[in-house]
Automatic annotation (TrEMBL):
Residue stretches making up the AB hydrolase-1 domain: 43-272
InterPro entries: AB_hydrolase, AB_hydrolase_1, AB_hydrolase_fold
Protein source organism: Streptomyces agglomeratus
Keyword rRNA-binding: no
Record keywords, A-Z: Hydrolase
Gene Ontology molecular functions: hydrolase activity
Any coiled-coil regions, as ranges: none
Origin superkingdom: Bacteria
Protein name per Swiss-Prot or TrEMBL: Alpha/beta hydrolase
């Protein structure tokens, strides 16, 4: 599919049809997708642990791509991107910087989830001039309480999912109750809407290296987040078993003038469960 945004072509605003692209920088070929109208500051999406380009909820991406240039990408060593996954969040942030500057951008908005939110924090601390606005969802600060326990929770839920032949995200992202179970199934089904040109799955070793990086992040000395002056929106569910919900409150306290939304009766994937409320709110925040 040829690029969107040339004068005689309609702009693609559906993630299911976003063309797959690559850019090579620093010896790594990064896989990415882009959609939405060109021009202005793009919104770059930073994805979660074990995720590839196919793990973004189209209900959130499509809503933002109606009015904004949206870019999703695979970190080094993930999905269709080449190279090895680095074993630190900071190195992942360096890769993100390499990728973004290779595309020619010197100012972006960031939409991040989970591990992506950790990478986004490391990026804004190191390159504050690059980021205009920050959306941090389902994530926590460096040195945050119990972040290093993510590893155990993740392996336990992958086991539970394997035994029930379900997607681990149904356990990891949603409450196992009358509200959470249907929300989980709906989310997993939305991720299947793109049928053509899907991404390569993450390799086990890459996933294990990401977990190692998260553990290291959880056990490190916290960043001074008082230096973050960018408008920041923080969101999570009230029962996040992966990156405990209290860490979203911790981020909110540390980042001056940040906004915090905690959704009731929901877990790590609260923004996906409440996409009908959250997507317009994110659009409004990024447009402000």
């Amino acid at each position: 599919m040829s690029s969107t945004g040339t004068p005689n072509e309609p702009v693609i605003t559906s993630y299911a049809h976003a063309p797959a692209r690559t850019v090579t920088a620093g010896g790594v070929t990064y896989a990415f997708r882009e959609l939405g109208p060109r021009g202005g500051v793009p919104v770059v999406f930073f994805v979660h642990l074990a995720a590839t380009l196919d793990n973004w909820d189209p209900r959130i991406i499509d809503a933002i791509a109606k009015g904004r240039h949206v870019i999703t990408f695979d970190q080094r060593g993930v999905g269709a991107s080449t190279g090895q996954v680095p074993d630190s969040i900071e190195a992942m942030a360096d890769d993100a910087y390499t990728f973004i500057t290779a595309l020619g951008f010197d100012k972006i908005d960031v939409f991040s989830f989970s591990l992506g939110g950790m990478v986004a924090q490391a990026l804004v601390v190191k390159h504050p001039e690059l980021i205009r606005k920050l959306v941090l969802t389902g994530t926590g600060p460096k040195g945050g309480k119990d972040i290093d326990k993510v590893v155990g929770t993740t392996y336990w839920d992958i086991l539970r999912a394997t035994l029930t032949r379900s997607d681990p995200k149904e356990f990891l992202f949603f409450n196992r109750n009358a509200t959470g179970k249907p929300a989980a199934r709906a989310f997993v089904n939305r991720l299947k809407e793109r049928t053509a040109d899907r991404d390569a799955k993450i390799k086990v070793k890459a996933f294990q290296t990401q977990l190692k990086a998260i553990k290291k992040w959880g056990r490190s000395t916290p960043h001074d987040l008082s230096t973050i002056t960018q408008p920041t929106l923080i969101a999570n569910g009230d029962n996040d078993r992966m990156v405990p919900s209290v860490l979203s409150e911790d981020l909110h306290r540390r980042i001056k003038d940040s906004e915090l939304i905690i959704y009731p009766d929901s877990g790590h994937g609260g923004i996906f469960q409440y996409h009908q409320q959250f997507a317009p709110l994110a659009v409004e925040f990024l447009a402000r």
